[in-house]
Model the fold of this input.
Amino acid sequence: MSQFDPLRDFYQRRQIVRLDALASGVQLVNLRSESPRGSFVFPGTDYLDTIEVCGHPVGRVDYGLSPLGDRVYINMLEIERAQRGQGNGLAVLWQLWRTHQVPIVPLDQYTSSDGF
Done:
């Protein structure tokens, strides 16, 4: 055990408490969930959610869960300009991690993945 382990554990617990508090007011409202052939996560599920803070929409997130359930792929995370810089994007990522507890991977896909 390193002499820094207790210090690291102390700050890690504080960070979790801070992120939980930040994410408590953020809610993901599902607009669509589908598994279209040709999408990167097929046969996994692709989600499009509205991000709401205290009942007011502040953005959207498009993400997919891999077929094995071992990754969450973020296609798009968009926060309205007036709502940026308040931690809403980080709160969404924290909620996705708390829900699925798997690595979150950014994805940039412009066309279908039929070639794979």
About this structure: The domain at 5-106 is CATH 3.40.630 (Aminopeptidase). The chain is about 30% helix and 35% strand.
